[in-house]
Amino acid sequence: MIIMICGVAGTGKSTIGKLLAEQLTLPFYDGDDFHPLSNVQKMQRGTPLNDNDRRPWLESLAQKLALWESTAGAVLACSALKESYRVILASHCHTEIHWIFLHGSAQLLTQRLNSRQGHFLDSRLLASQLSTLELPDHGWIVDVQKTPETIVRDITQRLVHSH
Q1: Which of 65, 118, 148, 157 has a CA positioned 20 to 30 A from the CA of residue 5?
Q2: CB 74 within 8 A of CB 34
Q3: SS3 state at 154
Q4: CA 149 and chain centroid, separation
């Protein structure tokens, strides 16, 4: 089972993803950990990534997803802001991916990002991510106002009922 936890910065992808992976006894991976250094440096400067920056990263993640799919499965936290990115991410998988999109107000996300320590993406890039975001017409869209524990419980229940 491959589960993608998607959304802009500050939605809690890593927090939700780790808790969900624990709950489901699946390995957790954070897409941010696979960015090439050039992308990380660009984001640290407050410069938004473009499609050319993202393509090799997305291709690499697509190959990793296929590998994880062939083993125990995985939970991957990844912004996956555009449908074209999601197509690349799913391109090597043979089974259905569970797409979970975390979504919240710009005000809440800015607040969260401003209180975050030691992460390369801060609130300066949020506006760019929000303008790039294409909410999908598939998967589940989850409001991030609830506690992470409540969100994970809701997702777990939906996963159980979808099988």
Answers
A1: 118
A2: no
A3: helix
A4: 17
